[in-house]
Structures are given as structure tokens and as C-alpha cells.
Amino acid sequence: MDLHRHLDDELSSLRDRVLLLGGEAEQALERAMYALSERDSDVAREVLDHDDQVDQLEVEIDRQCIDIIALRQPAARDLRFVISVAKMAPVLERIADHACNIARASIDLNNEPELNSALDLSRMAEHALQMLRAALDSFTSNDANTAREIIKSDSEINDLYNHTFHRLIELMVTEPATATRDARLLFVAKHLERIGDYVTDICELTVYMAEAAFIKHSN
Amino acid sequence: MPVQTVAPRIEVRPSAPPPVNSGKAKVAVRDLNFFYGRVQALHNISIEIPERIVMAFIGPSGCGKSTFLRTLNRMNDVIPATRVGGQVLIDDHDIYAPGTDVVELRRRVGMVFQKSNPFPKSIFDNVAYGLRINKVTSSSSELAGRVEQALKDAALWNEVKDRLKTSALSLSGGQQQRLCIARALAIRPEVLLMDEPASALDPIATSKIEELIFDLKKQYTIVIVTHNMQQAARVSDTTAFFLLGKLIEVNATEKMFTAPNEKLTEDYITGRFG
User: Fold this and answer.
1) Which structural domain range is residue B179 located in?
2) pLDDT (tens digit per residue) in A178-188
3) Each residue of B248-267: pLDDT tens digit?
């Protein structure tokens, strides 16, 4: 087998693994939000139980990136791909961690009476999930333009977070009895907002991978 | 001899790749063509090599990089039926202009070859050889001083200072190559051409040569031909990629190995060639 064919196979395997990790992160978030909205603590526990596998996948990707760099010494687009994956894997793992934190919050909230307040958490989660799916698609198709568009859309999550933040503070003041639950939901909102930031990081890595352009911190 | 037998079919941009223009050009090549008999080995090469940098030439076997290297001090002159067109300017002087003193040119543009080629003489006499035939020094103490300095510059002094009178052939392969570098440095060239200087050496000896190249660029303009792309990445400031006698791309080495401009370059350095 040609050496470059061997490298291509390894890069392809690495791509599959990082997409698998992305799928795991996406599923963890989706299920954590389901646990929260449907008050289903069993689903929340499943998310928490599954996190070890997500962590393990991240470690495997790390190891595979190091092996490829050490043994294949990739250059140019191959190097950019491996570096991007190496930096993307911990970001995806962190997204899954945030999903776990949401799952924990849902278990706590499910033990208390439901809050009947109109909040934008579902919209935030749906937007975060859409961003994550689109970011993984743009990574797969090496599409820097779409990645840039996704980065712009993070402002919508930030706006929703700010609105939710003020709404929950207002609730804490007007209905002090709900303050503990409000605080937990505030954390959930913050986790979703952070997931938006992480998706932005993924998109920045896609732009680097596709165009060798560093857009991080470039506003 | 790197000769191509078929007409090159390379899609490149109509204009030549932009020369690297960081600093004063020590060597400037304009529209250089080179023929072995009827076979054209180099096609319209234009490039500038700034002073006191290391430039690496990479490319597959037979791409013309060694041929091009040898045009820079007219080493190809000794090969019968060769022909050169275009200009090679060193400090703005065309080295192919009539009346050029080729011996003086090769003093200014030294060369180190793939295989170390020490003379069957002592270590001292090897380094002193060029100084003696060029009558560069006026006293034995000055000669000894120049030899010592050259050996120090080639990072060999500490290993041989106690056995300067022993045969150069008793040195290891890596030491012999550094001795050849010392011999080239003794006559104080301005440009040092290196044709795969470490390809026959083990990793430790290779590492010493690479460290040496890194140190020497403070004083010399160095051009190195290498098949080892990691070596080009490690030692050079700029890299030039040749293919089928054409210069495809010249770029800063870090750019070349992370985001080259030309697809042909990317295909070559990622191993997807052919």
C-alpha cells in the first residue's frame, strides 16, 4: 500500500472519530434538554452515565493525533487537519460536559415543583444544537464560508441568554420562593451560552483547516 | 545525471512564482535555462536568494534542483555539451559574463557535496589546502589560525584539535563531512552550496550538520538541496520547490509546510504525488 494511502486511511479514521465525538456531544445536549423539559431524570442519568465513553473517545482522538504527527509527519492540509482535530476534540468533550451539567440541573429541578415561567431555554438549546450540527457539517465539507456564517449566529444565543438572565433575576426578586430553581435555570442558560462559544471555536478551527487563516480573536 | 526525457506538462500560473524579497538579494537568477545536450533540464528559472539566509531546494529526483544548484558556481561547466541561458547575478555581477574568473567565483561560492570527499591528507592539510593553493596566508601562524577558525566554525575543532596531523580518513562519516565544510569555510566564501550534505549520515551526525547550518547562516548565504523535507523544514528560512525543471513555488518555509500556495507543492509535500 502506498504510504500516502496509509496516511489517507488514518486521516479518514480520525475524521470519523471526531464526527462520532461530535455526534455524542450533540446527542448528550439533546437528551439533557429533553430531561429538563420533560422532567425525565432517568434520561438525565443516562446522559451522565454515558459521559465516560465520551471522555474515552476524546483520549483516543488525542492519541491518534499524536501518533499521526509523530509517525507520519503530516504537512500542509494534512497537518492543518490533524491540528484542527486535536484542538476540536477537547472542545466537543467540553460541550458534552456542559450537557452533563444541564442533566444534573434537571435531576435537581425535577425534584422540585415545576416553574411556570416563560423562558427561552428551549429556543437557546435548539439554536445551540443547530449551530453544532451545522458546524460539524462545515467541518466535514471543509466549508469555511459556512463556518463563518455560523460564528455570526452565535450572537443570537448571546441575546437569548441576556434576555433569560434578566427574566430569571426578575423572578428571583418578585418570587423569592423560586430563587433556588431560578438559579439552577440560570446555570442551564449559562451552559447553553458557553456551548455557543464552543461551537464558534469549532468553526474557527474549520476556517483554519480550510484556509490556513487564523480568525480567532479577530472579531 | 538528472535528465528529463519528456516535455514537462505542468500547469502553473503564467507568471513565474514570486521571488522571496526579504532583504538584499545575494544571488539573483533571471530566466535561467539549462540544457544537457538537446535536453532542457531547467526552464526559465527566476529566483532571488537574500543574504544570510538558508534556502532549501526540494523536489523529486530529476527535477533539476541539483543542476540548478551547480549553476550557481558554474560547476556544470565541467560537464560536456551543456548550455546555459539567462543570468545568475551574485552581488549584481553576472557570473556567466565573459571574463568571469571561475576559480575566484568558486572561492566566493563554496560547495559541499552529498558524499564527503576529504583528501588523503591530514586533517590540518585538508583545511589548509585551499588557503595554500590560493596563497591566502603569509605565515604559518596565520595559516594555523585560519585552519583553527574554520574547524571551529564547522563545529569540529573540539573533536580534532589534539590530532590535527592524523589522516582525515580516520574520521567518522559525520566528522568527514564537517571537515569538508571546514575546508569550504577556510577560504571564507560568501555563499555556501550544499548538495544533500547529510543524506549519507546517521541522525546524530545529521543533527550536528543541521545545527552547524543554523549557526553558519549568521555569516553566510546557504543554499541546500535536500530530499528530506523534514530537514528542509528544520534548517531553512525559505524553501523552493522544483518539478520537471521548473520552479513551482518559493515561499517562507513555515508557509510552505503549512499552507503552500500551489497545489503541486501541496501534493508533493503531503506525499500525494503521481
Assistant:
1) 25-269
2) 999 999 999 99
3) 999 999 999 999 999 999 99
**CATH number for the domain that contains residue B48:** 3.40.50.300
At residue B274, the pLDDT reads: 58
Write the residue in B258, B265, B271 that is nearest to A3 by C-beta. Answer: B271
Q: Which of B230, B269, B271 sits opposite A7 (nearest CB)?
A: B271
pLDDT one-digit tens code per residue, B226-246: 999 999 999 999 999 999 999
**For residue A114, what pLDDT is reported?**
83
The answer to whether the complex's ipTM is over 0.90 is: no
| B258–A74 C-beta distance less than 8 A | no
Total count of domains within chain B: 1
**Does B254 reach chain A within 8 Å, measured CB to CB?**
no
CATH code of A152's domain = 1.20.58.220
Q: What is the 3-state secondary structure (H, E, C) of chain A?
A: CCHHHHHHHHHHHHHHHHHHHHHHHHHHHHHHHHHHHCCCHHHHHHHHHHHHHHHHHHHHHHHHHHHHHHHHCCCHHHHHHHHHHHHHHHHHHHHHHHHHHHHHHHHHHHCCCCCCCCCCHHHHHHHHHHHHHHHHHHHHCCCHHHHHHHHHHHHHHHHHHHHHHHHHHHHHHHCHHHHHHHHHHHHHHHHHHHHHHHHHHHHHHHHHHHHCCCCCCCC
Mutate to test the interface with A, among B234, B236, B265, B269 (most CBs of A within 10 A): B269
When divided into structural domains, chain A yields a total of 1
